[in-house]
Amino acid sequence: MGCRIHVAEVYEVRHNASDAFSNRTADVNRMLHENCPNLIWMGKDVESSERLKVPRSELADLIGKIVANRDDFDKWLKLYYISESVDDVLRIIAGWIAKSDQRNDFVILSWY
Hints:
Elements: H1 25-35, E1 40-41, E2 51-55, H2 56-68, H3 70-79, H4 86-99, E3 106-110
Antiparallel strand pairs: 1-2, 2-3
Helix pairs in contact: 2-4
């Protein structure tokens, strides 16, 4: 049996443009890492990663955490000079879940 090479029969790359979190890669990646324990990133560390693979269910849980702790999350946004409001962040994360490939359990996020 051994290790064999396989060809991907379907490979699609289509990005949905987002104007959110401009130049806040390290802060947003760190927040996702702290709140999504099964997040996978490409690169040497999460803060500089340009590609994240986040379990869809953990993003949904994050929405619940933000809603339950609105004031604390608003303080976090201000601490890191993130211009989006709490409601904006909730809408953005819900958009990631809705717009991502529904055929798998992960949401792929890319910074570029």
